# Entry
Amino acid sequence: MTTPAPSVPLTYTHTSDERTMAALAHSSAILNFFTGFGGPIAALVLWLTQKDKSPWVAFHALQSLIFQTAVMLIAVLVVGVVWVAGFIISFATIGFGALVAVPFMILVFFGGFIIVGAAVFYCLYGAYQVYQDKDFRYLWVADWLQRNSTPH
# Structure
């Protein structure tokens, strides 16, 4: 009786250029601190230039593009909604409402920076992983991409 061979985990072997391009796609999130929106643009450029050359790089660039865009939209929406509500409260209750609303608005504004900062660290972790030739998948984004990119 023959015993089956033990399952061996898949190993990835991508070229140095592919690893560098994928890492650049993830680390492009750093640009968001300096430009506010440069990270998704850089990821988009990498996806457009690499999609026909390397499906692996294209997947990582597209993951990064979607993740960064989603984080930016969430941060802008949260901060925007709180600021609009804060202005309404402060003008409607002239006095006490402003004393409560304005500090809360400032706190949420800085909370937006914390959200973006945490996302950048997550992206940098992804850059490190792909540069080490390991698979990296953003939570929810990678599964959504794979579900929507495979032909039915």
In short: Residues 16-137 form one domain. DSSP finds six helices and no strands in the chain.
